[in-house]
Design brief:
single chain; about 140 residues; alpha+beta; Arc Repressor Mutant, subunit A; three-stranded antiparallel beta sheet; two-stranded antiparallel ribbon; 6 helices; globular
């Protein structure tokens, strides 16, 4: 189910995830477009994304922990004896903020003083690199 982001439109999925997590999330979202379910085949995903299998497994685990993948079915055997991989619902950013209220820092009023500690920034779902601010040098020519 796709929901609209009714808050601040400056936030996107990639702001909450590390690059390899976003790569996997984006791939899974595209693959699951028609059915709404991502059927994980680790070796195939690793080959298509040019990642190793361990990286895929680690990032799937992290996406489940962060709530971007919702486990629908655990792996097992079909009635005909063939293997069936794990299945996940892949949440859009809009769906994720509905299920995780208060975790999207850009949908809340920003008080920059509150980001004085890394712990507080991480509670809001920000990565270390996003905490830093960047200012242009005064002698920068446009």
């Amino acid at each position: 189910m796709e929901t609209k982001n009714t808050g601040n439109s400056r936030c996107f999925t990639r702001r909450h995830l590390k690059p390899t997590q976003y790569l996997l999330w984006d791939y899974a979202k595209a693959i699951s477009q028609k059915t709404g379910v991502f059927r994980l085949n680790g070796p195939r995903v690793a080959e298509e994304l040019v990642l190793n299998r361990k990286t895929v497994d680690t990032n799937v685990k992290k996406l489940v922990e962060k709530g971007w993948f919702v486990k629908v079915k655990e792996y097992g055997r079909k009635p005909d004896g063939t293997f069936e991989g794990r299945q996940f619902e892949v949440l859009s950013h809009g769906d994720w903020i509905v299920r995780h209220p208060g975790k999207c820092p850009l949908l809340q009023p920003i008080d920059h003083a509150q980001f004085s500690t890394m712990d507080h920034a991480q509670k809001l779902g920000m990565d270390h690199a996003q905490k830093r601010s960047f200012t242009m040098p005064k002698n920068w020519a446009i």
